[in-house]
Structures are given as C-alpha cells and as structure tokens.
Amino acid sequence: NVVINGVVTEENGEYYVVFNATSVVLDMITISMIIDGKTQTVTMQPGSTEAKFGPVEKYCEIENITVTPQSTSVAKYSTNVVNPNGKGLFNVSVIKVIDNEETLISTNEYKYKDIVKITASDIEGYDFINWDNGIESGDTINIEFEMPEHDVEIKCYYNIKTFTITWLNDDNTELASTTVNYGVKPEYPNEN
Q1: Is the pLDDT of residue 32 over 80?
Q2: Sign of the torsion angle spanned by Cα atoms 100, 101, 102, 103
Q3: C-alpha distances out from residue 101 to 104, 114, 159, 160, 167, Å
Q4: What value does the mean pLDDT of the chain take?
Q5: Is the N or the C terminus of the chain less surrounded, counting Cβ atoms within 10 Å?
Q6: Which residues contact 16 (CB under 8 A, 6 or more apart)?
C-alpha cells in the first residue's frame, strides 16, 4: 500500500500543493481534489514519488481528495490528507487549552487569520485567575485573537477556593479557626 502525503509548500514566493508517495509509484496516478471550490487534478508519473499542483493560495481549502491509478496494477494507493470532515489538513493549526495542572480542557482547529474566541471554563471549587498563551495574556474570562501560522498552547490558570472554618462554643465564643481548600474535610485544629 502506497500512502501519498500532501502539503502546501512555498517556492519563490508562490505556493503549491505537493504530493509525495511513500515509495515509487508503478502506475500513472491521477489525484483529484477540490481547491477553494474548484475541481483540480494533478498526475504522478510511473517511477516517480512526487506530483505538484499550483500555484494556489497559501491558505487554500482542499477537499474531496481521490487517488486513481490508470491501470489495473495490484498496487494500492491511499492518501492521509483528509480529516473526518472531508477537509484537507492544509495550513490548519491547533489550539490546545490546558489548566495549570496541565489537564487538557479543549482542542480546536483554526485556519491562519481566523478570529479565535475562547471563554474560560467554569470549574467547581476553583476561581479563574488569568490566561497565558504567548500571544496575549489577560485576566478577563474571555479572550479573542487572530490565529497565527502555528499551533498555540494556551494555559488557563485557576486557584482553588479556600474557606475559613470557625468553631464556636454554645455561647458563640470562638474556640478555633482554620483555613481549608475546597473539597477538603475540615478538622478541628489539634492544640498540641
């Protein structure tokens, strides 16, 4: 099985869709796709490992990629550039949102220059503190920024809520006081 990988590359200021096979192809292969809404094809010749189409827009949308060999060879061909939504994974970056415990909160894919809007999750027992994503930081629960040309990891910082527990006598005089974190069972302070 020959896998054909696709990527958008730059050559002299122009961008091309370049397909590379994991091994030499035995047949002439036609690769069909829809680029920015238009059907396009490119041919990979027998004995080669590469085919190039373009020029294209740097952040083009590529859909419905099919690979068709032009003979009845026993070789099988497939591409790994199609995601479950049928869109090519070209120039798409991922945003990972994690908390200060390094727990993954969410992941989303965005294209370059998309406007990204994220709201901090409400986590029981914790107070939102701020964001830190290397692009912009802030202490508001919502952030908005333009997607750069690379993956982004955003940290969402929280502090655990703390409570003061006061033990009172029958006449409401204070016996003891202690501070506990959310979710921790309070215990009467030992006076040893």
Answers
A1: yes
A2: negative
A3: 9, 28, 11, 11, 32
A4: 76
A5: C
A6: 8, 9, 10, 52, 53, 54, 55, 56
Integer-rounded Cα Rg, in Å, for the chain is: 28
So what's the pLDDT on residue 81? 45
Residues listed for the chain: 192
pLDDT in tens, 2-26: 777 777 778 898 888 888 887 887 7
Q: Are the C-beta atoms of 112 and 91 separated by less than 8 Å?
A: yes
- In the prediction, which pLDDT does 108 show? 77
pLDDT digits (tens, 9 = 90+) for 34-89: 888 889 898 888 888 888 888 887 777 777 777 777 765 545 555 544 333 333 33
Q: Is 63 exposed, middle or buried (0-12, 13-18, 19+ CB in 10 A)?
A: middle
Is the model's pTM score more than 0.70? no
Residue reference for tokens 């703390």: 162
